[in-house]
Amino acid sequence: MLKRIASIVVAATVAFSGLMFSTGEQAEAATGTFAYSKVNGLNIRTAPSLTSSKVVAKMDKGQRYTYLGKSGSFYKINYKGTHRYISASSTYTYLKPRTSTTTTTTVSTSSSSKRAKLVAESKKYLGTPYRYGGTTTAGFDCSGYTGHVYKKAIGKTLPRSSRQQYSSAKKISKSSIQAGDLVFFSHSGGTIHHVGMALSKTQMINSETGGVKYASFTSGYWAPRYVGAGSYL
Question: Where are the alpha helices (DSSP H) in 124-155?
Answer without folding.
Answer: 142-154
